[in-house]
Design goal:
Strand content of chain A: 25-35%
Helix content of chain A: 25-40%
Distance between the termini of chain A: 47 Å
Oligomer: homodimer
Largest sheet of chain A: 5 strands, mixed, barrel
Structural class of chain A: alpha/beta
Number of helices of chain A: 11
Shape of chain A: globular
Strand order of the largest sheet of chain A: 6-9-7-8-10
Number of strands of chain A: 17
């Protein structure tokens, strides 16, 4: 029997928040970030076992990362890797994936996952994902995972539950931006708000209809070449036309506007690993509270640091508390963890002083 | 007319106090430490111009550094480089240099210099050195430079002036070890105490007689092969016998015991560059008080640091004050400047954890 379950993994991000550990030539998702021997992308694919067959996995990425993907995921065939010729955020690429997959299987249900998140409880994740696919069989839904919050995190967006549908599923009442701490506390205490995980499930027809209704300027670009999807001409058409798509996120273009958006309440040990702080929180610490990411370190009178240094390098530090130390090739970063919101500014300074050399 | 003035430059030290900037494979004296384009050793040789002719310069070093010396000082002939087959501190090597030079010129006067110090006022240095050689013509003296102190430095040994001889010259009353701060203040206020620079002047006969009188176990080893000095057989004899010399400093073996020890009071902007702190003090600073040794750095809200990073590496730091950051090849050091006395301990920890790999 044909397997209708597909997974689209978005892995084209640049990820300046982990500079210099993550570089534009090899962003976070391609790095063995947790020292497990597998990159975050490989871990994202590994955890699909028992949910989606290998041949139904589709990579959405920027063309510059094609080589990295083929190297890290040799089990994929070339036509499973969709290469974006330009960065247009998450709406256009998800439209492309839907048209591409529909041409192969008009009954496809698609799970959309980021490639650089952490999920600790694999079994629970599998149970939730299978349950989500199952939900799509009975509902014409755009579904998202809402992660049960365990703290008033201000770094995530939140989803407010609306009308109950069944089991752990409900309609979405609102999507909210990152709240301040006070508001985040109210959200968590209410029991009504869940973290927006950026993982989605939808049937191909459901999402394509949503594009028609809510983002017709995107849909039109894909409709006008109905014959190319799934053929050898597809990439050429994309190379020609993709850059003219509007630069817009799937959340903003579709999820926040569609009438049939549902949320599944999940709790499988999720982190977006979006900041050094979340990496710190999710990594094993030594007795001084230091995370020595994958490296050799002799730390004296030093506590609660993240030390991320590539290769066989030795770090000797003393009197260092609550810092991020990241050393990779030709760049060394030493900043307080409390400064991590400024990292983007620092990286911009690097760019304005030295161009792309160190990015 | 034959030039009787010789200079022996001691450049065999290992220098763990600047680890990892200085490594045992390329210690401090061979590094362009101040970003001038010349290594400290090259600067030591450069400043002999007008004092000692090139062909009268003798290098005393460990055999492992022969290649580095020939590379950095191509003007030297091979027989100007004396290669110690073992580390035996400064007494045995100065005995060797004296016997070696006497064989070439029995009237030689020798100036002995370290290779890793800083001297800012070259002209004044030259004046003092010429004056020192001149003094040796009239006195059977073991002479040392005493540097006029400008602060109560606790990192140097001190020389107390004794009976006045002539001009800036006096007999030495005592050599003292590094004082504590209170004592250092008394020393400086007295006007009687000068920093022990580790630079010496003596005639070959004077120093050889001193070895006979005060360190006969060393003298005997050199006397017993009177025929080899200055010949092709010299190195073979040294290779065979040098390691059996006692491990002792010239200060302890000779200078602190001899009756004819003089001090010349000098003031030519001297530092032994013995610590990161003295490097910091002697280097140009930006307006935030940071010394960025030879490297690219973007420093935010960071003050009074020494950043020493080799190559084309970029350092981005924030919230860092009064630290030493040294990054070289496979080692990164981040320690408060106030911890620099503990550096030796840290380096020992490196050795006990990783052997010689990072030294």
């Amino acid at each position: 029997m044909k397997n209708n379950r597909y997974c689209v993994i978005m892995c084209g991000g640049v990820g300046s928040r982990f500079w210099p550990y993550s570089r534009s030539s090899k962003p976070k998702q391609f790095i063995d970030f947790l020292g497990t021997g597998r990159s975050l992308l490989q871990m994202a694919v590994d955890r699909l076992k028992g949910i989606v067959p290998d041949e139904n996995i589709i990579m959405l990425t920027n063309e510059q990362y094609a080589g990295l993907i083929m190297e890290q995921l040799p089990q994929l065939k070339k036509d499973q890797i969709l290469l974006e010729p330009a960065r247009r955020n998450t709406a256009p690429c998800n439209a492309w994936a839907a048209y591409h997959i529909k041409a192969k299987n008009p009954d496809a249900k698609i799970m959309v996952c980021p490639s650089d998140h952490l999920i600790l409880k694999q079994d629970e994740f599998r149970r939730c994902a299978l349950s989500a696919f199952d939900f799509l069989d009975r509902h014409d839904a755009l579904l998202t995972f809402g992660v049960k919050p365990n703290r008033p995190e201000t770094g995530y967006g939140y989803i407010q539950l609306g009308e109950h549908a069944e089991g752990d599923f409900a309609k979405v009442k609102t999507f909210t931006e990152k709240p301040n701490e006070e508001l985040a506390k109210v959200f968590v205490a209410s029991g009504e708000f869940f973290w927006n995980s950026g993982m989605f499930f939808w049937g191909v027809d459901t999402i394509i209809k949503a594009f028609h209704d809510l983002a017709p300027d995107i849909a039109q670009r894909f409709d006008s070449a109905a014959q190319v999807w799934g053929t050898a001409g597809e990439q050429a058409y994309i190379d020609e036309n993709y850059a003219s798509c509007p630069n817009i996120s799937i959340d903003f273009a579709i999820m926040e506007k569609a009438p049939n958006v549902y949320v599944q309440q999940v709790d499988f040990g999720w982190s977006d690993l979006g900041t050094w702080g979340s990496l710190y929180d999710n990594s094993p610490k030594n007795r001084d509270g230091n995370v020595t990411q994958n490296c050799k370190a002799l730390l004296f009178n030093s506590h609660n640091n993240v030390i991320a240094v590539k290769g066989d390098k030795l770090v000797v530090a003393s009197g260092l508390n609550d810092y991020i130390v990241a050393d990779v090739d030709d760049a060394l970063l030493i900043v307080p963890k409390s400064d991590e919101q400024k990292l983007r500014t620092y990286v911009n300074e690097v760019k304005s002083n030295f161009g792309d050399k160190y990015l």
